[in-house]
Amino acid sequence: MNQCKTFFMIGAGNVAWHLSQALKKANYIPIGVYSRHKTKAEALAEVLNCRAFDSLDNIIESANLFFISVKDDAIADVFEKIRIHAKHSLIVHTAGSVSIDIFKDKTDNYGVLYPLQSFSIKRKLDFSNVPLFVEGNNAETTSLLLNVAENISRHKATILDSEHRKKMHLAAVFASNFTNHCYACAKQLLNESGVSFDAMLPLIDETCRKTHDLSPEEAQTGPAVRYDKNVMAMQESMLQGAKLDIYRCMSRSIHETAIKIEDKNDKLRFEQNQSTRI
Amino acid sequence: MNQCKTFFMIGAGNVAWHLSQALKKANYIPIGVYSRHKTKAEALAEVLNCRAFDSLDNIIESANLFFISVKDDAIADVFEKIRIHAKHSLIVHTAGSVSIDIFKDKTDNYGVLYPLQSFSIKRKLDFSNVPLFVEGNNAETTSLLLNVAENISRHKATILDSEHRKKMHLAAVFASNFTNHCYACAKQLLNESGVSFDAMLPLIDETCRKTHDLSPEEAQTGPAVRYDKNVMAMQESMLQGAKLDIYRCMSRSIHETAIKIEDKNDKLRFEQNQSTRI
Predict the structure, then answer these.
(1) What is the pLDDT of residues A141-150, one digit of tens each?
(2) Which terminus of chain B has a smaller tally of CB atoms within 10 A, N or C?
(3) Domains of chain B by range and CATH?
């Protein structure tokens, strides 16, 4: 267990694709790749220069590290099939919303390594820039996972338990999946106005860049934060269906957030006045 | 009218701040700045090296170009007060959702110059990277506005009428204001998990960068596009109030969009099969 130098990758999807290559780059030795889709397993195995498997029944090899990087619902099933080969290994899943307890009482050494990033096989990505969150079932596995994390990312890895990781994953859904859907809605609306989506890119870039300098509450602009009722009513009249629902609950939430901040500032000012009086 | 070389800026807010400096940089001569907030008018006037006004009654100067860059509801009022000084000028507002007709039958030469960007006084911004959309009340004013646009931005300016501009502004609300609010929601959820917002920045950056290479529909990841009911139910149970509403309508809209794309692909495959058979 002290020498985590070989790994087996269960899964060949977006996360497995990028994680396994980052591991290889950090001198971890790939033993095999499994995917139920043969072509996917073969594509990743070719890149890693190791064996490909499309059935878990054929696997006889073991490794120091078994990464399970399949969809959430399939983790328990694939684990059952590999646990005999992995009983002396460290078993690790990579899911944000699955508890570490999925392995509890079933094997000795297990944990989670969650990369906070949106991966696409089609896109190159600098894995050293991915923040990693780890959890082990005991101090030794946690320490081993921190060590793996340090070897593949320049970000300082963070120990995070399953409950907090679930909440962070939910935050990532808002920051990535929902923002991306906002882009999709914008693209559809631009189509209706005959303007290319490319025209929107400087705005999208700047909105993103602002997060590095200003808090999102501070950076908020537009009709909802100003509570510009005329513009909002006019914009609602241009929408229907799902986009109208999004417009309404987003605008309400932006307005409520702005009021909370205003109240907080008022309270601060009041308290400052009180303390000045005293 | 042929020589649009002097300008007067009505407003000293986010747009006025950046636009007037871009104009000066392109050798337009600032005559004055008006804001009802004296300090704001003075701050911008100092940068531009021109006179500051906090009352429209004092203005006697004129300029080739009058830019009205105040909040939507105030455009008509400030125009009434300056029209006498601006009767031989080109009057331009900069609002996405206000029709050019706000000036109709009230002056001879008028138009709109709409910069598609989210401006903050606090942030430096390369104005030459801002896409500009113009509309004039006749061919001459349109041509003059195109010329101004060419001088201040390296993007090719686009002629766009008021109805299409309104739709584009709505698209910008989705792509900028709503994505920014998603960041704000993520930040609040991260606070609950004890993780710093900084950890989310590589994910936010990558989600933004993807828009340059993939269509947002293609780039979509996460539980909603996979329609992962277990994760979605679990995540809903962690939310309440406005964030729960956003989660629900966003997830439904992401799923509906994915189905539409799937249907379209199915239809394409069917049609390809049909044509192969023929």
Answers:
(1) 999 999 999 9
(2) C
(3) 6-160 (3.40.50.720), 165-277 (1.10.1040.20)
